[in-house]
Amino acid sequence: MPQVRKKNYLSSIELILWVARYAEKCPFTFNFEGQNEMHNFLEYPICSGAERTAHPTQKPLALIGKLVRIHSNKGDVILDPFLGSGTTAVAAKKLGRNYIGIEINPDYVKIAEERLKRECPPTML
After folding, report:
1. Which of 85, 82, 14, 10 is closest to 43 using CA atoms?
2. Which of 64, 115, 58, 117 is nearest to 88 (CA)?
3. From its phi and psi, is residue 75 left (phi > 0), alpha (psi between -120 and 50) or beta?
């Protein structure tokens, strides 16, 4: 959260940590995209408009979608131990991945459930 004290710069970044074991012990996925897209600074606007929910730290769907696409394949299972507004679940579902979401706050669970219903409705058979 920004601290308006007029004594320091406001933080304008959030860190994303990607960790992998040695491929020999635990293979991981890294779907290489174009060289110009593979830098370690990803800049996306904050969530607004129809995408915005009541969750205070919601991440942009485009950002999470890119990470899910790079680090998984269709049919893989994506684990989000802090589901929040459900961005990871929405990205996983839209990209053909399965997901497991864990969230302790019942208000956020409701936000995520409603978002999944709205953005990823069940397909008609």
Report:
1. 14
2. 64
3. left
> What is the model's pTM?
0.83
Reading the block at residue 98, the tokens are: 């399965």
Q: How far apart are CA 10 and CA 107, in angstroms?
A: 28
CA–CA gap between residue 96 and residue 102 (Å, rounded): 19
pLDDT digit string (tens) for the chain, length 125 residues? 455 667 777 777 888 877 777 767 777 888 887 887 778 888 888 888 989 999 998 999 999 999 999 999 999 999 999 999 999 999 999 999 999 999 999 999 999 999 999 999 886 44
Helix axis angle, 61-71 to 87-94, nearest 10°: 60
Q: Is 99 helix (H, G, I), strand (E, B) or coil?
A: strand
The DSSP-derived string for 12-60 is -----------TTTS--------GGG--S----PPP-GGG--S-TTPPP
